[in-house]
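Reviewers of the previous submission asked for a worked example of the structure-prediction workflow described in the proposal, so we include one complete record here. The input consisted solely of the amino acid sequence. No template or homolog information was supplied to the procedure at any stage.
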Amino acid sequence: METINFRWLTEEVDIRNSTELTYPLMSVSQTKGVIPRSELMGNEGRAESLDNYKVCLPGQIVINRMSASSGALGLAKQGGLVSPDYAVLAPTKLIVPRYLEYLMHSKWFIGEMVARLKGIGAGGESASVRTPRINISDLRDVSVQLPPIEEQRRIADYLDEQVSLISQTIELRLKELELRTEYERRIIDDLLESHPKIKMKHVCEDSGQYGLNITPEEYRSEGIRLLRTSDFGSRDVEPIYISGPLENRFLVKEGDILLTRSGTVGQSFLVGAEEAGSSFAGFLIRFRCKKEYSSQFLAIVCKSTSFQDQVAIDATVSTIPNFNADKYANIEIPALDLEDQLKLIDLIAKTTEMHVKLMEPLNRAIKLLDELKVSLITNSVTGGFKIQRKGK
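From that input alone, the workflow returned the following structure tokens.
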């Protein structure tokens, strides 16, 4: 293998959209690579102006610089328009485009990117990085062990075949996971649907309080924690803070419900003891239940099909979906006394517990398959094992 710096393998290109071009909007998915945005969102969700969007062409690598360290990059198979903040790389003649995609998806190369992340909070080996972003210029000096062109093609062909088989298996497991989740939701929906309805505003102390609109420049290393949707995810997320003091209406208590007002509208989050006393971002709306209505029960209702269907019908679609506090406040939810709410909470908890136990083997299988795919890619492009010619 030849040792060569990454700068000689790619050239960053920056072609902007023009009125003569009719390319579709593209997204970069961690699992599907570079695909039309309509395949992820059901519609393109076009911005008001695409004048500043970058053009990507077939055979070029597109990188979501904010999520590159999580594998959000891929090889474009068609012409399209991507976010101005994305990076577009044209492979040089020294590297096969498909091989370059696998190389950049390898655990080794991801590690090189993570080591070079820059953003708010960056600095020093032990420092945390908030709003991390990879700059392509920082990758120029990464030393790559590069095999000859014919071996690159052979490795890429082998990985195309093997990764496709693994991905198909993962897709089957994900569909099974989806079916089981849908079955659980139907059980919960049946438990909720047979009751009379009341508008959400009648069980809450107010009609919804909007969060704070601030810029990343206002983030701090300490102070009052600012809650975002990512803070309620399953993976560890570095918290961000803002300065205080703040009015009580911008702070949350344990049991508050946060609902998204833009983007993926209808997402809901139950504030726990750990988040109590925090503030919350401007794209979230806070609802606080009256004493006679359980916040835990409202959290269950917000995830029900009936609630989500009402959100879908009433959501306003402009540049991105939008849902204000008044629309949430007027959604109809089950009207039960507190004792019946608590009984349903207990029944649903038992249903969910059984569902989780059934899902555990599937989740483990998907995780192992993902690890196998990453290991296969990494070993293939770093010389961990040799790919033999067919027939040998």
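The longest helix spans residues 149-193. We consider this example representative of the routine output the project will generate in years two and three.
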